Amino acid sequence: MRAAVLHEIGQDKLEILDDVEAVGFGPGKVRIRVRATGLCHSDLSAMNGVLPQPAPFVPGHEGAGEILEVGEGVGHLKAGDRVVVCWLPACGTCPACKRGQTELCLAGFMNAGTPNFKRPGGDLFGFAGTGTFTEEVVVDAGCAVPIPDDVPFDIAALIGCGVTTGLGAALNTADVEAGSSVAVIGCGGVGISAIQGARLKGAAEIVAVDPVAARREAALTFGATRAVSPDELPATKQQVTAGEGFDYVFEVVGKAATARTAYDNTRRGGTLVVVGAGAMDDFLQLNMFELFFDEKRILPSMYGGGDVLRSYERTIALWRAGRVDLAGLITHRVPLAEINEALDQMRTGASLRTCIEI
Length: 358
What we know:
Layout (H helix, E strand, L loop, with lengths): L2 E3 L9 E3 L3 E2 L6 E10 L2 H7 L9 E2 L3 E9 L11 E4 L9 H4 L8 H4 L6 E3 L2 E5 L9 E5 L3 E3 L6 H7 L2 H13 L6 E5 L3 H12 L4 E5 L3 H9 L4 E3 L4 H9 L4 E6 L4 H9 L1 E9 L13 H7 L2 E4 L7 H13 L9 E6 L3 H10 L4 E5 L1
Parallel strand pairs: 5-9, 12-13, 12-15, 13-14, 15-16, 16-17, 18-19
Antiparallel strand pairs: 1-2, 3-8, 4-6, 4-10, 4-19, 6-7, 7-11, 8-9
Helix pairs in contact: 5-6, 5-11
């Protein structure tokens, strides 16, 4: 079967191979025919080494498709079921799950170190234990979440990561207060979803901050009240908040420099929500006096900061009701053979989300 493969961390191109085999099928597993997958910035981060990932590997973790076969002991799924791939499944039994913090369950991460593909040259890993830039993938049954028949595969794929992450940051982690002021730094697919979440919660002012003009223009169509470049943020802070700072600032880039900017633009007593996934050697510096004196809350948001399955259901309900625009997030559609062009579009900021149709 065909799959896009990164041979070594640091390479910027994927190779499309047709001799890849999905392996590991057995009890508790399912085989999925991938129909659509989104290109998430985390895929780029794994390719360039910002996020830890063994290589060679098949990127992709934001996918949807249909079940081809189920292993022994899998009773809630059957061949033909339409599913979204969940890269962070909850085991239900660990301390985090028992506390209701299923987004902190580490069971899914345990799969990342086990190869789930092979080819004549050796084993291949799947990114985050999945790997959806391929025609088929074998995953734990918990990674396959059934979706209703009216949800298209491309929409379902977005729900599998970016939309759940961005919406959840506003709805779950921050619990944005109606009438508040919000700034979102980084307006790709996740940032735009955070903007939609802030709009749903009734934020009065939502400022989109991004260096790419096309993304700023797009943000205005999804609920931002203003869209500015990073250089314009200080003046906008003065205009919107009289210099005090925003009630909520979302950092959706994953860099210490933008997190520091977000902190500086959060009002005293306000909330900084860290959504971007950054590198382990990129350190945010804060002094102990400002932490004490400003009383700003710093809230990291992992995969939307809430129960993943409930978040999927909520997003589908909001999409059906026309309260969130998911189709509009897909700015480009390409076949698997053109995945490298899609990577370049994401690097330059030309795309919000690219759907890889497989």
